[in-house]
Amino acid sequence: MMFTEVDVFIGNNTLIDPQIYGYWLQGFMAQEAAKLVREKEFHLLGNIHEDLIISDVLDQFRTFCLLEKYLQSPTMLADQWTFQITSKTQRLLVEKYYDFDDCVIREILGKKLSGRNRKDLDDVSEKTGVRLKSCRRQFDNVKRVYKTVEDLSGNLVHNIQTHFLLPEFLAKKYATVVYIANNRFETNKRKLQYLKFDDFLHCAYEMMTNWSCHNPDCRFEETAMDMDREFLQMLRDLKILLEKEYFDEHKAMVAKSLKGKISDRILYDLDANLKSLSRSIINIASGLNHSKEVRDLFLDVVEKIIEPCKQIRMTRSDMEVFLHNYTEIPRTLEPFKS
Amino acid sequence: MPGKVKVRVLAGRNLPVMDKSSDTSDAFVEVKLGNTTYKTEVFRHSLNPYWNSEWFRFEADDEELQDEPLQIRIMDYDTYSANDAIGKVYIDLNPLLHKDSMHIMFGWFPIYDTMHGIRGEVHLAVKVDLFSDSNRYRQSSCGVRFFYSPGIPTGYTCQAILGFVEELVVNDDPEYQWIDKIRTPRASNEARQTLFSKLSGEVKRKIGLKALDLGGNSVIGYRQCFDLEGESGIVVRGIGTAVTLVKSESSSSRRHHNYGSTPTGTGIQGSKLDEYEYLFILLIRFMPASFPIQTTNSNEDQTSNFTIPTASKGNLSSSPPESVTTPLTAPAGVYLTSPIGAPSIGPKMLTTSPKSTGMHRRGSSDPDLSTTPNCGSNHSSGSGSAGNKSAFKFMISPEGIHLLEYPFITMKQFPVGLIQHIGGVVCSRSVKLLDQINNPDDPETRDTWWMELRKEIRSHCRSLGCNAVLGYSENTNICDEVVILSAIGTAVTLTTEKEKREVDQNTPPSKSTVKTEQSMKKDCNTCDSHYAPVNCTLCHIPYTGKVPDILFMTIEPPAEMPITGIGCLIQARVCRYKRDSKGEQCAKEISDSLPFLEYEIHRQLLSKLKVKGMNGLFGLTMQISVGDNLLIALATGTGAYISAMPPPHPPQVSSGKGVQTSKLNEIQKLIFESVSKNREHYGLIHSSVQPSNDQTYEKTLYSSCNKDMNSNDSINQTKLNLIEDEESSELDKSEEMINKGQVLLEVDDTEDADIISLMIDSDIPEGYEVCNTEIMPGLRHLYVCNLQTFAQVYRAKLNTSKQFGHQFDWILQSLFVKLRRLVPCCLTDLKFTVDLPETDLVQLTVMGSVVGLGSLPHTLTTGKGGVTLPSQVGSTFRKRTLSSSDQSDDLVFSMDEDPKFESVVTELNSKEIFYHNPPTEHSGIELTPLSFVPDGHIHYYLGNLDFFFIRESTSIRESGGLNGFMHSFLSEVFAIVRAHVAALGGNAMTALHLTQCVLLYNPHKNQSQCLINIAGDAVMVHYHNSKQNMAINKIHSEINANEGIINEEAENLSHL
């Protein structure tokens, strides 16, 4: 065949093929993508020369490459003249561009978003089976979102939504990822390996909503990604529960409230372990004032709370009932009554 | 009219980072018109500066206003070294000068740099205040309007067509000046862009003056070309047609007027009556009103029953057979009383109107014909109502035409009744040497060249017995110092004033249209080539015998010409090797080869057309291109079957010695097979009756209609009929062969045989239609929306000249792949350009528009409800798409409403076929090469825009190779065009064309340069189906309240 030097097709309206966009995001080469396109649309393209399909894919890929700079600051997408895209397509482009693979983000979670870690992404790629190009995009997205919202005050999810025009569910995901990144939580220790991205997502989201300062006139300069210092200081007061007189009362009431809800055998074991368990919980809580200990939060929780409970074969529901009562009861105790 | 120009620079956004250390820029703006320059303050450390400048005022005489572009330069301030350029914005002030204009434009303009492309945007407001000045000796032509559109602009009535206007200016090309050796590429590119912009303004101004001299106020069908001659300079040429336009009073329905529908004949009263009669019949048909939607559908389907893919069954019976769909909810009475309803009935009304005379005519029998060529399905119906009956007064009288130096008209679409006979294509070329120009800066030499060519055309035209040349265009091709000048047009006889009156009184215009020219001079096929000045001219006439059975035209299909079935793209491509010669020798060689090229091209066109079973070719364009070692000819047109002309004969194969008979028979069989396949595919049914007698013609059609109706019963029978047709035509053929001695294709060796098999193009896949005219013959009514306008640039190395033809098939195939998400669609107005940049290298540029095809009938919104319009031809199309799955459908015609059949069709429809519907939301700026916007009507012409862009890069590999470079450049070109349209308050650009796309590539230096010329008419379109008309109106009124809004805008920006 002959050598084709130039082959470009430009439309006044930039029409996006979502499927080909997907292949591009996944980091496919044009040839691979063309093969997949032909398979998908076999009734139409079955007899078409491969080069023609590749040419179409390349047109789309080039458009995506040129669009990438706008996708990196999505608010520009609506302001630019270069590509005439309907707002519906714009939303699709942004949403898919910022969408990520949980398994990839799980690997990055809590790591410093540095150039060095970016270089190590081939390990991530190898481990997750996601192509390096896609891993890089996901890494860069997280980093970009982080850099943008790092110094902003106000609601984190809301900030992400306004700056990146993301749908709420995705903005929430980013908020948690960024939250974890900001607090540099350790997530990659061997003991934590069994935890999925969703687990962290859930935890971080709860922490964000419950542990952050929502008072706009806060005296500390806190962003939505920091924990509320006043709250942390208050956690120190919990230490009083470790003092003998309160602990005994606490313990007794917990045991009493759990009676009948948890099997006797476990209740018995729990009774034996409660002292150390309670100490662990309270120490973790008060330790949150030190950023070094904050990082090990998940590790501590697993090592000092989850594992002992597992050992006494508590089930998930047992755990829920126990923790609920464990945290509710002190409200009725003397030091916390006010 | 001297004027005051006021410019205000409000803000910038998304500027590039010019200061790497702080990641910001210190931007300021220079505003320049003529020799006056103003500057804004420096806005420090920002990529989104807010200057909010005062109004900079320029005073300029109107000559300057017309010639000089307003230049806005955005700079980055640097304390220690020279300021860096960020980019520029050129603003053509011409659109602000005509008296209907708002005299203002404002908005975000992309900042363009020739080395980096678009770099952010700047928010500008520009105002022009003109003072009236009635100096008779003025050099300016302010106020003369230019339209690139090849027809009479919508919303205007043409009072007079005054004649051909042309102008040519020559200048040094800055790229070839000595100073270019010492300045930066950016400076050189900008010098060129500025110069080109000025020259373009100058040409327009001078043409405007000529138009004024002729007594006109506008130029339509305007074309402007830049000939980059290299060392000998740059030539800017413009041609157009001077006319007198008046804004037609908008009818009550606010529909735009369009010329085609201006009935030339029968009194207002008569036709009005007919409209009502017609309506009345319609109403009766649908009296059992308030159909549920389903019934509507079945009605639609039923339409397809009694329409056949041939012409003109429609109005044979006294009751209009077109079924009407139906805003069934609207009370029927509305249509009788409201003048708004009337136009919505549409084209058919026009056609039915002559019925009052009791005669039936071909022209009127096909609804497809009566619509105007320059508008889509919807608004074509525009002015059947009495509102627009203002008669034309063409200043072209027999005397008038003779008085004109050149009776040339660059328009391609014409009012009904203007054309009386069509002669055929006239074409003339000459080869010249640029280095023999004595005084390079002098336009006279080129003027003389073109004059010779025009005279040639004029004499060809006369020798055909015609009095005018329509669809006239001029082209050049330059290769080193050799230039080929070409002129092409369609020789016709125009209905002159006196005849017209007669025609008006006695017969409707449509009758006389296709009287084909009989007094042909065979000897026109001469070719005389002299040498020094090398000159080769030839005229070719598309007739093979005394009775023309094939007609070639450069114009759009005239509205009144009856067409059967659907058209298709016909393309002839010839490529020959040329010796690597220079100068005179090269010129001589080219000049010697031209006749052979032309012959070959003509032969290919003719046989391809015949293989398609068609007899007319519209919108013919021809290009001759010369490269280092190749000589190329390309001809593109849209074939169609003109009902009034005899069916074409399938090409016959004859052989010399040395080819086996079996092989010959094989080829012949192949040809016959594809002819009959094509006939079926394009819905062409042959009636071999001569158009000499209307009565008989009508009768035969009727009978064939009956025949077809019978065939309804059994598919087999119809097929039989077809075969019979075939045989009879073959018989005819062989007789004629004897009579005329006509042998089309000669097979003398195997190579010839290969060529012949090439004539049979590969099939167009289902769901696509392709043509190079604005309207696909036979599909007028199905245009529902503009889906895409595209440009494709393709460049490949040829191994052998044989591959040349394949490139086009390849490109078409690739378009089908790329546009597969848009079916069913019609690729219209395809413009192919070939360049031969280097040895063995071919560059093809294709530009076109993709129009979505709708199902029938679709609703015409007229403000109040709508009447839907079925169309015969439309249903042909539908059937055709269906036919692949179910042949029977294609061949079924029934006048009576056979419920069984109806259900079949409904089933089929619901099964798989998707149709486009006019979108209800329109966002963004539409660009289209068409002179109308499907589904919209042009509310307002805002002026024309002409851009010449140069883009250069010295980091081609880093920017994604040549493909990446071109991709981003073309995207940016479209973007800048859109931005300027928007700044004028428009939402679309029509008649968009890309006249030049030169790509120079130097791989060793990693450098490339590309030049693009793009132009069109900025318009404001109202969409029939849109909720956003209100919004557009609002914007427009806002612009009216200009200064206030700009201040407001400035305030808004300041908050950012």
TrEMBL record, chain A:
Keywords tagged on the record: Membrane, Transmembrane
InterPro entries attached to this UniProt entry: FIBP (IPR008614)
Pfam families registered for this protein in UniProt: FIBP
Keyword Transmembrane: yes
Highest taxon in the source lineage: Eukaryota
This protein's GO CC annotations: nucleus
Protein name as annotated: Growth hormone-inducible transmembrane-like protein
Species assigned in the record: Dinothrombium tinctorium
UniProtKB/TrEMBL annotation, chain B:
Annotated Gene Ontology cellular component terms: plasma membrane
Chain intervals for the UniProt region annotation (Disordered): 295-324, 345-386, 499-518
Domain named C2: residues: 1-106
Residue ranges, compositional bias (Polar residues): 505-517
Family annotation (InterPro entries): C2_C2CD5 (IPR037785), C2_dom (IPR000008), C2_domain_sf (IPR035892), C2CD5 (IPR038983), C2CD5_C (IPR057815), C2CD5_YbjQ-like_dom (IPR056430), C2CD5_YbjQ-rel_dom (IPR056431)
Stretches with biased composition (Low complexity): 376-386
GO biological process, one term: positive regulation of vesicle fusion
GO MF term set: calcium ion binding; calcium-dependent phospholipid binding
Annotated protein name in UniProt: C2 domain-containing protein
Gene source species: Dinothrombium tinctorium
